[in-house]
Amino acid sequence: MEGEGRVLWMKYGSLLPLLVLVLALWFRPPQDAVLDDRLDAVLSSLLRAERKVGINTADRPRVAIGFGGCVDLIVDGVMLLNKMGLTPANQPHHHDYIENEVQLAQSFAYFFAPGAAAERFMLNETLFNELVEASRDIPGNRWTVGGNAPVMAGRMATEGCDVLLGGSFSPDFTDVLSQHITVAGNEVEEPDIHLILEYPSGASWGQYTSRRANRYIVHSDDHNPYLSSMEDFATKLEEFEPDLLVVGGLQMMDNFPFQAGERKALLSHLAELLSSSSPKIGVHFEMASFVEESIMEDLLQYVVPHADSLGMNEQELPNLLSLLKGTNITVLSDPNPRVATVLDQMREVYRILNKCYKDAVREGNTGGTKVKLLTRLHVHTLAFQAIIVKHGSQWKNTMSATAKASLTANRHVCGSNDIDTTKARLIMDDSFSVSRQEGSQRIPLEETKPVSCWAEDDYEICVAPVLVCTEVYQTAGGGDNVSAAGLVLQI
User: What are the transmembrane regions (predicted)?
Assistant: First the structure.
């Protein structure tokens, strides 16, 4: 009998897993099936909205993007800190820059628990090199092209643009760039390394648990802060005749040990470059993690007045708004803000910057340079995308651009062009208020029309939910990819 039982098990045992799967599907809770149907409907509608506008590959849009670039070394952040013997800080603490292991542990813990993105300059080059060497042995580590400008350039080339990229790169670096990207800048022997400490939602480090997937970036970059490609970029810009000029990567200047007056001189030169461009060319400034108040003030003087489009995330928006309102920089904000909160902050940034523009023009305080009215503002968050565009401006296809930005968020973070709804979820509310003001209109999230657009004052607002990736491949570069994809359909 015992032998017979063994034979029967060998014959039918392999069918048991299949039977278990069938039964699981049969008795699956009906709400799961409804949720799947809803995600599929939202995805289909977003794809349909994205496809409403195509890129003319015979007449590719031309985009000039500066500045800088690096090689990103991406590792599991918790695994690296554990390998380095860094213990979780009892008191998380914000540091403008990193000088030692204690500050690194405190700073990482500060942003890790809420799941907020951060980037810090490491003055201690020895410690940085030790981190890089330790990262080489971390399972799953990988190297990739990094830096705001190259990442945005790569996305725009993929989406059908020809790109002029301002940066100083090594031959190996340029070899991996798209054939539709032309580099303007000096050649360097070795690119700078930026260390990306990634972590998933729910990751644990000692007593801390991350509320969402994100990354903490450290670098000891001593080339990119000097915008060394700016001269060559400016020379080639006129001949390139771009439809759009994009500026990013300026956070490399944050807390960098410049000599007195060096940074202002560089930004003044950049202001001249932006001011000298044709008024017909749109100028977009992609913000990043800035913590030094003086550089934010410099940006408001030398860069922001020459941009008619701004891109930022849910941390950078209140940071900018705080400074515009005359208060201290907001280092850490809610990593999962409500739609109404973000929209109110966007309206206020739009209003304040355009009032500054009008006051400067009326009083003749433009410093002899051409300043621009802000006509586009894009804020990308984990849960949704929101874009404001001024009526009658050069920016087109706002609804489709918002949908494309939303889809790109999932594609980048999941590491796949094909969106799998079994690896996604909606975390935006089923309906949202358009403002925190009492009595404000509520807009429901409709699966067959997920991008909501409406007119206010002199602008249009569009909001789209993000199919948030639940199996994260990479968060670094997410904002750059999303901003670039949204811009492609609007030029």
Answer: 7-27
Helix, strand or coil, per DSSP, at residue 408: helix
Whether the CA torsion 223, 226, 227, 230 is positive or negative: it is: negative
**Inter-residue contact 432 to 442 (CB < 8 Å):** yes
* Residue tagged 């590792």 (tokens): 75
> Amino acid identity, residue 58?
A
Q: How confident is the model at residue 92 (pLDDT cuts 50, 70, 90)?
A: very high
Letter string b/e over residues 94-105, b meaning 16 or more CB atoms within 10 A of that residue's CB: ebebbeebebbb
Q: State residue 365's pLDDT score.
A: 64
Residue 446: other Cβ atoms inside 10 A? 14
pLDDT, tens digit, for every residue of 156-189? 999 999 999 999 888 888 888 999 999 999 888 8
**Residue 480 is among the residues annotated as catalytic for this protein:** yes
**DSSP letter (8 states) at residue 192:** P
Nearest to 433 by CA among 442, 424, 425: 442
Locate 98 and state its tokens: 């990193």
Left, alpha or beta for 437 (phi > 0: left; psi -120 to 50: alpha)? beta
> Which tokens go with 132?
């890089």
Q: Identify the active-site residue in 76, 221, 344, 480.
A: 480
Would you state the pLDDT for residue 326?
84
Q: What separation in angstroms does the CA of 254 have from each of 98, 141, 225, 454?
A: 12, 27, 8, 37
Mean of the pLDDT values across residues 390-416? 97
What confidence tier does 10 reach under pLDDT thresholds 50, 70, 90?
very low
Pairing status of strand 282-286 against strand 244-247: parallel
Pull the structure tokens for residue 32: 């799961």
What are the φ and ψ backbone dihedral angles of 177, each rounded to 5 degrees? Answer: -80, 155
Query: What distance in Å separates the CA atoms of residue 46 and residue 482, rounded to the nearest whole number?
Result: 15
